[in-house]
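Box 3.1 A note on notation
Throughout this textbook, protein chains are presented in two layers. The first layer is the amino acid sequence; the second is a token string describing backbone geometry. Keep the layers aligned when reading.
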Amino acid sequence: MSLPPPADQTLDTVSVRERPPTAPPSGLKRVVVAAMAGTVAEWYEFFLYGTASALVFGTHFFRQTGNPVDGIIAAFALYAVGFAARPIGGLVFGHFGDRLGRKALLQLSLIVVGVTTFLMGCLPTFDVIGYWAPTLLVTLRLIQGFAFGGEWGGAIILVSEHSPDNRRGFWASWPQAGVPAGNLVATLVLLGLSTGLSEEAFLSWGWRVAFWFSAVVVLIGYWIRTKVDDAPIFKEAQARQAELQESQPGVGHVLRYHWRAVLIGIGARFAENILYYIVVTFSITYLKLVVEMDTSKILLLMLGAHALHFFLIPLVGYLSDLIGRKPVYLTGAVLTAFWGFVGFPMMDTGNAWIIMLAISMGLAIESLTYAPYSALMAEMFPTNVRYTALSLCYQFAPILAGSLAPLIAITLLERFDSSIPISLYLVAAAAISIVAVSFAKETRGKSLRDVDAEAAARTARTTQNV
């Protein structure tokens, strides 16, 4: 009996192209909604924190020096701290998610993120409790980041493992669309509060209401997730592992047998992750400090851009099913290198429509690198370590990329009083992703069962050679 082809063998794109369309499995749409419900809830909270860092935390939770930029820099530094806990959370949730099931761990991560976000809205400010304010905020931020680390991988895998092979790019991109959907909900809430209240009232207590509202969003997401189950391929892998009495492979197994795919997965995120946080988080600060635009107007522009982003992500996911993951991804990475040189001058005009176009362009480019990522990663790792591996790739990269992007951007802006250094920063991010994805093999249309068989064969060969 011949062994299946090795994992690094190029996929036969002709056979994939000729493969007849596969109907979505029964219940797939319910699985997609369940995955998105949690993703929307968690990204509502994450975007809320990022926006509050730009608008509120700098003045409320840190000692004031007379320079408003200092407080914002401190808030963005604390913003980055949450990213440090995400890989740890990703590995813990990934390990137990591969062992116990995707659904159970997704439920837990959603509840923890919801509780910490609600408590953030209850914290006293620096004027009330002094340095305990940033201390408590960073503690909650670390717990939130830990739980958030388990969300993306589980949601993507839940959908990917239920999806037909030739439409995985489309279906697996829907949880990704939960990101702009969550941002959209958060922006709507903040916009309603900022327009319905005076600026003084919003900064005093109005922002807290947005954090408390997270409890409603989380409860809805939790209830929807109770209606789905893990995919058959995962249950089969669990049964096979139990029959063979094998222990659950951990991160050591992933790094030993899949290190090349891990490096590709981490490097691929740089362009997408840095561009996203520059466009969505740092732009708020840039428009407020440089363009001197009021908060409500900024949030209104973000609202329109997030709505467009929501529709673009599944469209790009579908495109990756037609022409491949790599061509779509590499196009987005190349365009990332150019956005800063175009986007910031457009913002400098002060014209609302041009600014919204700049933000929308940035998110459209980001879609090209974000939408195909979920399917590409799911098709690179076998079922028994997929949750651990995806969480490792997705959550480790932001420590070096997105977590520092707003902080680096505002530091560059303050030092050079120009957007050019920030644009060059985006060029460097794009270069890293272009190199990483260039080493990836095309996975469009690949069966996850083939991925499992190839990984088993490769592991057996490696073990025999030791």
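The chain has 20 helices and no strands. The chain has one domain: 27-465.
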